[in-house]
Amino acid sequence: MTGSRRNLVLVRVGAKSLHRDWLEGPEERNWDLQLSQYDDDPDICKGGDLPLSVDKGTKWDSIYRYLTANPDLLDRYDYIAFMDDDLIFTKRDLNRYFEICAEHNLRIAQPSLHRDSHFCYSILLQFPRTKLRYTNFVECMAPAISTEYLRSFLPHMSQVISGWGMDLIWALTMPNPAFKSAIIDEISMVHTRPHATGAVYDAFSEKRLSPEQEMKRLKSGYSGVPDKMVVYGAIDREGNRMSGATVQRLNSLSLLANSWRYREPVRAIRSGAAMLLRAITQPSYVPQTVHKIQHESA
To answer: What is the pTM of this model?
Structure first.
């Protein structure tokens, strides 16, 4: 571990993990690597900067246990990125990921998805016109969270297992959430595994855990959770700010025009059309704080 590295990449790793490729290249890293192993393969532990964590749980319950057992990490690092192990990423892009988060004082962010990715949400696909897009939604796949914000958000994670539903609230539980969460388009990653597949979903099945039910339960515990994922502003490649209406209009047209390039063109077309409608009906949308519902004790 290098004392000057102010960022941490925490990745849950199995036998087929792609994290080794993230270490390739001559560039110096601005991040340390923490491996959290869920498989029995002894070779997985190679390459980490911090002592190996072994936890046979699923991603987010394991992360919660690790952070509560190691609270000093929140003092040691400025940002922690919680990565899935099926992502194609370069060391240079990971460095830039953290740089952009710091440059724009983001509380939570994620890289955009390369067009070759398997995807669930078209809003995450890389939009070449922008450096970053401000959004009310950040997926659980590879979020970077500032440790300042993570301290206050950690209690919200205490009952989370699958992570489904957490991505609907964690960009919004902070005070004044506008312009503090973003999809970063300057860099992109390739998601190599189809949606709802892999070891973590096998674990959900074994535990008879329904991610859909967990999302419904988590969402019902907060007031004001938006029912749509909305881009409400952006910064273009020259560093200029773009309004929500402008970026939604341009982003929607890009999705429609390039739908044939993506793995699921119909999904991209539907999302592009919905985004174009929101550019007209919600041109001035700004996210508001969501609040945990306090149930009265019996």
So the answer is: 0.92
